[in-house]
Design goal:
Elements lengths: L1 H22 L18 E2 L4 E2 L2 E7 L2 E6 L2 E3 L4 E2 L2 E6 L3 E6 L2 E6 L10
Antiparallel strand pairs: 1-2, 3-4, 4-5, 6-7, 7-8, 8-9
């Protein structure tokens, strides 16, 4: 009987720990805590930070992908307006503040 109660305690602790992990599954561990992030970087629609995901260049001009939205200079995502698109960053204006969103550096650098 004692073995069965130990098994139940282990199973319960496993379930509780997996529930705690599920709550933070979509959180990027490299980002600073929300309380320390400037409000101009926070995205009210997803309750997370604005993240520059990609910069697309074509003959028709450049586009920035922010939170899955493809934007040109002058276009808006939520209350952020794209001011400029550079090679590795995008300048936005939000709540009267100008913020530079940068692409993450690649982990592996190509050899030359």
């Amino acid at each position: 009987m004692r073995g069965g109660s130990v098994f139940r305690v282990l199973l319960l602790s496993l379930l509780l720990s997996s529930a705690a992990l599920a709550e933070t599954a979509g959180v990027d561990p490299t980002l600073p805590p929300r309380a320390l992030m400037p409000s101009a970087l926070l995205d009210e629609t997803t309750s997370g930070p604005l993240v520059l995901q990609a910069i697309l260049r074509s003959a028709n001009g450049s586009r920035a992908v922010i939170a899955g939205q493809s934007l040109r200079v002058g276009e808006r995502y939520a209350d952020a307006r794209v001011l400029a698109i550079h090679a590795h960053s995008v300048l936005i204006e939000r709540q009267g503040q100008r913020v530079l969103l940068r692409l993450a550096e690649p982990v592996l650098q190509p050899s030359r």
